Amino acid sequence: MAETARWCDYLELTKPKVVAMLLLTAMVGMCLAVPTLPPVKSVLLGLLGIGMQSGAAAVFNHVIDLRIDRQMQRTSHRPLAKGRVTVNHALAFGVMLMVAGFSVLWILNALVAWLTFASLIGYALIYTVWLKYSTPQNIVIGGLAGAMPPLLGWVAVTGHFDPDALLLVMLVFTWTPPHFWALAIHRQKDYAKAGVPMLPVTHGIALTKTMIVFYTMLLVIVSLLPWLVDMNGVIYLLGSLVLNLGFVWYALKLKFSDKKGLARQTFKYSIWYIFGLFVALLVDHSWYSLV
């Protein structure tokens, strides 16, 4: 039983749900990179390497955020915060994942290996160590690291940059602020207690709600770009319109209502939104590839 618990603790350190979402966006990038099916080798090695590097970044995030994790109710149960895994063991695990992931991606091409490593550094060090504590715009700037997987998936298959891949990055990048700010409103007291200058803590909930509406409207525009540039067709357009209506509704309701629990509901919807949007991208591409 103890061995099972320890295995689960190490798995939890990698933030598997977050990594799963990142891998979905990477998979969509792989599929959209080619007119038909991407090579099996590129898909398997690409997802494995990106998953390992993403898991490593999550482990390093746990180590660096140990102090505030112990203070915040949302994170106080984490393996490091509870002492179920030591810092040294977590660091060794993270380094192992990082090196293994980089090596796997190097088999495909050097560009995807270095880009994924740069994303790891961007999230685990630049965002977690510096941006998170230095500016209320932390999630806006630092969100770029989390938006990279679609590009990484694309490069894993093609070995080069492409403007269409950057459109996918823009989707996740624009989605990140309203997603995290909704959580920050829900957990405002937690962030204030831990001394993290999230926007609701530094500038108040009212302004944060306004910014959520602004970025949600911006997201609507960005989400139309794949259709406008003929990267995707009508299936994606219809799916994105439905999802956007839901996100705008939640954002406006959050802005003009003080009903308890709305911020958490908006946060949860934002997760389903990005999941649905990338599924729509994949279904649309697959449909038109077959016909």
Describe this structure in words.
Helices cover 83% and strands 0% of the residues. The longest helix has 29 residues, at 262-290. The mean pLDDT is 93. It has 15 helices and no strands. It has 291 residues and is mainly α. 45% of the residues are buried. It starts with a helix and ends with a helix. The radius of gyration is 19 Å and the shape is flat.
Question: Any key phrases for this structure?
Answer:
flat, 83% helix
Layout of secondary structure:
Blueprint: H1 2-13, H2 16-32, H3 40-64, H4 66-71, H5 79-82, H6 87-108, H7 110-134, H8 138-146, H9 149-158, H10 163-186, H11 188-194, H12 199-203, H13 205-228, H14 234-256, H15 262-290
Helix pairs in contact: 2-3, 2-9, 2-15, 3-6, 3-7, 3-9, 6-7, 7-8, 7-9, 8-10, 9-10, 10-13, 10-15, 13-14, 14-15
Strand content: under 5%
Largest sheet: none
Low-confidence stretches: none
How many DSSP E strands? 0
Average pLDDT, to the nearest integer? 93
Distance between the termini: 51 Å
Specify the helix fraction band. Answer: over 70%
Task: Using the alpha-carbon principal axes, give the shape.
Answer: flat
